Amino acid sequence: MAEAHPxxxxxxxxxxKRGATVIHVDPRxxxxxxxxxxxxxxxxxxxxxxxGGLVNYVLSNELDFRxxxxxxxxAANIIDERFQDTEDLDGLFSGFDPERGQYxxxxxxxxxxxxxxxxxxxxxxxxxxxxxxxxxxxxxxEKESSEAAHTxxxxxxxxxxxxxxxxxxxxxxxxxxYQILRRHFARYTPEMVHExxxxxxxQFLRVAEAMTSNSGRERTxxxxxxxxxxxxxxxxxxxxxxxxxxxxxxxxxxPGGGILALRxxxxxxxxxxxxxxxxxxxxxVPMPHADLHQSLEEWVEDDEGAAGFWGSIRAYAVSxxxxxxxxxxxxxxxxxxxxxxRLTGDHSTYTTVKAQIDGDCKGYFLVGENPAVxxxxxxxxxxxxxxxxxLVVRDLQMIESAxxxxxxxxxxxxxxxxxxxxTEVFFLPAATHVEKAGSFTQTxxxxxxxxxxxxxxxxxxxxLQFYVELGHRIREKLAGSTDERDRPLLDLAWDYPLDEHxxxxxxxxxxxxSGTAADGSPLTAYxxxxxxxxxxxxxxxxxxxxxxxxxQARRRTPHWEQDHIAAEWGWVWPANRRMLYNRAxxxxxxxxxxxxxxxxxxxxxxxxxxxxxxxxxxxxxAPHHVPEKGAKGPDAIGGSDPxxxxxxxxxWLYAPLGVADGPMPTxxxxxxSPVRNALYPQQQNNPARRRxxxxxxxxxxxxxxxxxxxxxxxxxxxxxxxxxxSRTLPYLTxxxxxxxxxxxxxxxxxxxxxxxxxxxxxxxxxxxxxxxLVTDRLRSLRLGDRxxxxxxLPYHWGPNGISTGDSPNxxxxxxxxxxVYIQDKVGTCDIRPGRRPRGEALTSYVEDYRRRAGIDLHxxxxxxxx
Amino acid sequence: xxxxxxxxxxxxxxxxxxxxxxxxxxxxxxxxxxxCIGCKACEVACKEWNELPDDGYLLTGMSYDNxxxxxxxxxxxxxxxxxxxxxxxxxxxxxxxxxxxxxxPHGEDQAAQTAGGEIRWLMSSDVCKHCTHAACxxxxxxxxxxxxxxxxxxxxxxxxxxxxxxVPACPYGVIDQRKDDGRAFKCTLCxxxxxxxxxxxxxxxxxxxxxxxxxxxxLRQRADLRLAELHEKGVDVxxxxxxxxxxxxxxxxxxxxxxxxxxxxxxxxxxxVTTRDLGSMxxxxxxxxxTLAGLGVAAFSGRKA
Amino acid sequence: MSPREQxxxxxxxxxxxxxxxxxxxxxxxxxxxxxxLFLGGLAGASAVLAEGAALTGRPELERVARVAAxxxxxxxxxxxxxxxxxxxxxxxxxxxxxPTSPLSVGSFILAPFGALSGAAAAAQVTGTFPRxxxxxxxxxxVLGPPLATYTAALLAxxxxxAWHEAHRELxxxxxxxxxxxxxxxxxxxxxxDQAGPARRMTVAGAALEIVAAEALLNRLGMVAEPYxxxxxxxxxxxARTMTAAAAGATVLGGRRSRTxxxxxGAACVTASLLTRFGIFEAGxxxxxxxxxxxxxxxxxxxxxxxxxxASGAE
Lengths: 866, 305, 314
Prior knowledge:
The complex is a heterotrimer of chains A (866), B (305) and C (314).
Chain A: H1 10-17, E1 23-26, H2 31-35, E2 38-41, H3 47-60, H4 66-72, E3 96-97, E4 102-103, H5 118-129, H6 144-147, H7 177-185, H8 190-197, H9 201-213, E5 223-225, H10 227-230, H11 235-248, E6 259-261, H12 268-273, E7 280-281, E8 285-286, H13 296-301, H14 313-325, H15 349-357, E9 363-367, H16 371-374, H17 378-386, E10 390-395, H18 400-407, H19 409-413, E11 424-429, E12 438-441, E13 446-450, H20 463-478, H21 487-490, H22 506-514, E14 571-572, E15 600-603, E16 608-611, E17 690-691, E18 709-714, H23 730-733, E19 740-743, H24 745-751, E20 758-762, E21 767-774, E22 781-783, E23 786-788, E24 790-794, E25 815-816, E26 826-833, H25 840-853
Helix pairs in contact in A: 3-8, 3-9, 3-11, 8-9, 15-17
Chain B: H1 3-7, H2 14-17, E1 27-32, H3 41-50, E2 76-84, E3 119-127, H4 135-139, E4 145-147, E5 153-155, H5 166-169, E6 176-177, E7 184-185, H6 191-195, H7 201-205, E8 211-215, H8 216-232, E9 239-241, E10 254-258, H9 278-300
Parallel strand pairs in B: 1-10
Antiparallel strand pairs in B: 1-8, 2-3, 4-5, 6-7, 9-10
Chain C: H1 3-8, H2 32-55, H3 59-83, H4 102-126, H5 130-156, H6 161-164, H7 170-189, H8 196-219, H9 225-228, H10 230-254, H11 258-288, H12 291-305
Helix pairs in contact in C: 2-3, 2-5, 2-7, 2-11, 3-4, 3-7, 4-5, 5-7, 7-8, 7-11, 8-10, 10-11
């Protein structure tokens, strides 16, 4: 965190000053490790084994926060008897279809109620109808579109659990989640952690003891993570393991606890809230599927009425449609639902790149994004861009993605010839974040409004101005058209006030996002959203950020003038609630677990929840309230159901639905690995991982002498992402002026690498060169009876700027997490001293490696299961 | 106070001694390297505020330090020292080898320190010390270097004629001449910002408050408390450097909390202002001049031509 | 450092920051500054020689010495101005008078000396304004010894280990070296019958220089290494040999043979020049190797405070 978020890290140092213990787990010893109390070196990609080890430690020693676990998690829930664990099936869960490479999750579900209501009985019959004994679909065709991105179709709360099922609160039933969890993680012993992760048992136990002794009524522990967990084929499951651990320790929804995803600087949190992702709409409302959702009804019926606030999805969806199409959206036309684009399959970024290469995708907007350096398998990115009809790049600097056609690596090797590239490239200079007004959303879900400080120079413009203007011009061209296809554009509510420079008023957009009532007055909370089209709201979780017409995100009361919640700095979604699920900070009776960790509690006299923060609960719902049978939406939330976005109100130690690769996390090796999966030798990799089968994306064979070392990419404080904002500035460039790799002394000795010399790093994709830093900070790891070496690569470099070099992401293969389509940044490689070959010699050098490794470009993904 | 005492040794009102009748309290930096995260925001903020030129783009191999040292165009320099504290028993090429003539670092192995692992990574933001007895100021023949009303030491670039005398005079190796310019430059403790009541750029930018700015007397108290706190936690390696007004330069206006010997960070272990020996120097010069004169006289005594 | 040289001095254990120097290398240019050191010594001692010659009626000697003093001062001034980073601002040297800065003091010695020695030489050479010329000459002679020796303080009043530690001996080395240089120039250009005082000054200066240099090398301990090793060591050794030989030759044959005088004189001048370059380069070398800063300071600390405790209370 000190490397990538040094300013945010000041709060970790502040905590440390006040007595917090800081533990840092990372393949390399970074500037965070330097100030941590304990540094744990770990083999890149093996985090599930480590976290699972901690889970096992908690469960085996019964160190879980029992009252919390019983009351607030689904530990007591009993699972369907057809469920089979990876321990039963050598690394697979029940329901796996090897042909499609996917799971059917229906056997993972909660056991049906013994006494189902008629509605429930219907759902049970539906579910069981086409399941065969293996728990897999009996062969009925499922359209490709329905499988695509199914996991996000449940929005932020996870899949709707259709029945709450039976619970054994003694946690003894052999099929209750608690016992299933115990069995599942039983072999994640300290010795196993040592063998898989390379972490010494004594060190592992120090972490385990530190965390468990610092959790419970009186104390809480927090976990922070970033792309070290997300950039893996098991990334979502890594985070799930942490969630399980924290739920077992009672650290969720309590002050000083939680899991913090350290989102990126460029308002990445905002870019998923108001998304630039293909499969979700603002507020994590799922994109409709062309085949499954032919109408508004069909779109919202799955989730509508589901317990919890997610059940009000119709109101959110309708209000969103009103924001888009304003007066044109009426109850009669389903609020213009038909105008919404629909998914027909997987449109994720790597799939799109392949479509570009295959000629199916013709155009591309790159707005503040530099895939030629920042995305995995750079060659594929550039080949895709070379095959477009047109490419629009908006950026502050002339980035590599805009100049690939004249100076990309493929020009040097001859794989691409400038004169033969037909892409028409448009470059538009962009305004920086100080040259425009707008909000950023950060890790704490906090929106902070930035004012404009200076006018942008020359022709630079903000994205807001670009898109508004683009919209106007397209609408002008389409004006008077009678074609139905043009109506979605012509009917858009597209009326934003402009200033004298033509810059749209950002606050007017924020107001549109925050929402208005029928009379145009600003909304205050998402509970005001209506299903009848009387409200308009561009993003339900942001509803209220312009409450009373005041830009709440712009509030800047300094923290020394407020209490520790500091509610008057910025605005946090939803409803300025600073900590989610904070009902869990009080026990089932509504009293704080301890005086020390008091946060939100039930005031019986006032009949409502009170506290320092906005309670994340229905204000007047008593602690022991039992909902009526058949209650819907928020009414179905019980008094002790803190996890109000889950349909059963509990934290899921076991995810019956909504996760593509298993209800519980399991350790699998990265697609390229030097070792066999010690836990499940028969199941090397994540069975559900998504592959990108393309001859330009060959995967290294695992456990190979040709590619014997692990490599992983990461960041340096001095540079920023793909380098356009740092390698073009002298003051930052001189701090880290050349690309380098980091290796342990042992690896340097083994391969003859010289400190401050050059090295060439090779994978099946390509070879790059970098300077060498021999350092003890990259630890040689002992896994069982062998050494595993890791090559560390800061990824910031590309051919443009003051400091230039090869891009490490060119080495990375595209194999993705099945839940979120994110690539794995761990792979295998070879490393040799000296600079790499140039021109055509480079391609033959790489081909030689592929030959020796036995890689067949007709079956490029087969290398992965070596 | 005798003039010799004013050249070195304790001097409680250095600004008054420099000739100011009224002046604000002396200010400076306390750099607590135990909370430095090596982010180099200080280096960049300083360069931006003072519009300094870049220092070239050279990968040094000195851990993450590519800035190398303080100089005419670098007024904040973050040092990085990787110290393996346990022999891992493996064949190793090792980090950059010792310079010719230098043996492997000795350094007592104080195990009770920062990271609980086997490596320590020391980071420290170095800066001009704004000494109480500043050798650069003492030797400057043009008066370009002067003591400000804040007790800091500043070069006036419109007076400096690049004689270069300050460069070897500094016991810490801070000030230097800029080659393409000819003049000498160093940290001004953001004199311009101080005049507007602002905090120096580096202190403003430092996210962890490793660089603390304020009245020197208060900073010294704070540092003493911090040192005691660290010692209580068992961090015996912690020590203050440049805090003592009785040291060889009369105490530094910018002083440090270090986690190892000063020379590990590139700082002199026992800096003394060269001016301390000035009296002796002039006496010996005088004696030698007299000797030469005497030689001259003796050469002519005896027969005339 | 050759293995043989390495064995001479037992290696001290010390820490450093990647072997980098602590004190900055002086930015003074070579040959400008070492040349100035030589010229200042030559000029200052020549002024004394000139005045003595004037008082004792040795016009040839006087003329040579006056010209040497004046041209030494002039050339030295040029070298100094050329060495400045901003030569056009050389007059800023006279903005203030600072006794703590030998360079300031030196400017106020060199400036009047240059004027006075120039006037005296002009008067002597052209034969005009003889009385004023003599007066100027006296002034120059008074300023001469300071001119020749203050430069030792210039070098010593820095953090450069080899210079600062030598601050007691260096003035005497410079005095002696200046005397040999002045005597040598005089021996070069003056007929032997008038060059007697020059010869005496040469020999006395040589003795002074050699004794002072020896004292320096012995007292400085480890910091004397840069004076003994590498190029500086070679320059110093050669200079000492030449000085001793020249002094010996002067004693033995300087009075009788013009040739010996000339050769000895040339050797003296060269040796004086080499000495200054050697001292200059020794200083540079001592600044560039951190051990000369760290080891003596550590020693000093240890002696002063006993074994340094980990708490480092200073």
